[in-house]
């Protein structure tokens, strides 16, 4: 069964492709390589014995999406393609709304026209905004995200909910995770991107008290000490 993974050569997308192959699915990746490298395909092959089909392209390019949907009988789409750096989104809000919101609109229209109506969207826990209580739980209401990145995720969630209400045959799933960190146990698949989240290991180390433990600490964030 074919699953289209947008942003599938990125950090979470590449782990997802490994899991999909191991579960018997055939992932097809569309990624513009803005924040990843095609070399991850070889590493996925080393781990699973299979190389995902790969299209270098942008989800805002309707023609490439139509080509993919016409060439393969796709069952579902897992949508990771997007920009994700909170700080950068404050400086470049238009780019974030264009990639994350407008890109998703093009994708959903192409899916609808191809009759593919199963979508899993990589959202973010930032949609909860600041809540008065911790720990956050799934059924908290969404809040006021504090950045254009967070707002772009919330906007997409709301758009998908509206589409699902209007056309009830859609299956929409929203993944709201907090900062993912770490690498595949093999060390072959990890966060290679140039754009955030920042080097979390380094961030923690800078905040450790200045003891010998601080000096000796080796923390692993992008699959290497960071
Ligand atoms: O318009 C775009 C923007 C990005 N990408 C690609 O999308 C992938 C995104 O992967 P990253 O490694 O940059 O991001 P993550 O896998 O860490 O993040 C994913 O999970 C996050 C949640 O923590 C956010 O949901 C984010 O949008 C989603 O991409 C990259 O390969 C990038 O090249 C595109 O193909 N098109």
What's this, in brief?
Residues 3-184 form the NAD-dependent epimerase/dehydratase domain. With 226 residues, the protein is α/β, with parallel strands linked by helices.
Structural overview:
Keywords: Carbohydrate metabolism, Galactose metabolism, Isomerase, NAD. Residues 3-184 form the NAD-dependent epimerase/dehydratase domain. There is one protein chain. The chain has 226 residues and is an alpha/beta fold. 40% of the residues lie in helices and 14% in strands. It has helices at 11-22, 40-48, 62-71, 86-91, 93-114, 148-166, 200-207, 212-216; strands at residues 2-6, 26-31, 53-56, 74-79, 118-122, 171-175. A six-stranded parallel sheet has the order 3-2-1-4-5-6, with helices on both faces. Strand 2, helix 2 (40-48) and strand 3 form a beta-alpha-beta unit. The protein is globular. Galactose-uridine-5'-diphosphate is lined by residues 7, 9-13, 31-36, 58-59, 80-84, 99, 103, 122, 124, 177, 180, 193. Galactose-uridine-5'-diphosphate binds at residues 7, 9-13, 31-36, 58-59, 80-84, 99, 103, 122, 124, 177, 180, 193.
């Amino acid at each position: 069964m074919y699953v289209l993974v947008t942003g599938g050569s990125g950090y979470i997308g590449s782990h997802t492709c490994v899991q999909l192959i191991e579960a018997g699915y055939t992932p097809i990746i569309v990624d513009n390589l803005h924040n990843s490298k095609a070399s991850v395909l070889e590493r996925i092959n080393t781990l699973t014995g299979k190389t995902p089909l790969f299209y270098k392209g942008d989800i805002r390019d309707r023609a490439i999406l139509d080509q993919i949907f016409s060439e393969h009988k796709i069952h579902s789409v897992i949508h990771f393609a997007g920009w994700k750096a909170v700080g950068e989104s404050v400086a470049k809000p238009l780019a974030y709304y264009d990639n994350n919101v407008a890109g998703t609109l093009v994708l959903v229209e192409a899916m609808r026209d191809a009759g593919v109506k199963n979508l899993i969207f990589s959202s973010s826990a930032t949609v909860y905004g600041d809540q008065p209580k911790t720990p956050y739980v799934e059924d908290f209401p969404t809040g006021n995200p504090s950045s254009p990145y967070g707002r772009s995720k919330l906007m997409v969630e709301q758009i998908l909910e509206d589409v699902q209400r209007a056309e009830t045959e859609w299956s929409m799933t929203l993944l709201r995770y907090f900062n993912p960190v770490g690498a595949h146990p093999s060390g072959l698949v990890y966060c290679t991107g140039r754009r955030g989240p920042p080097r979390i290991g380094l961030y923690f180390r800078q905040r450790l008290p200045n003891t010998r433990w601080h000096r000796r600490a080796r923390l692993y964030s992008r699959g290497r000490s960071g």
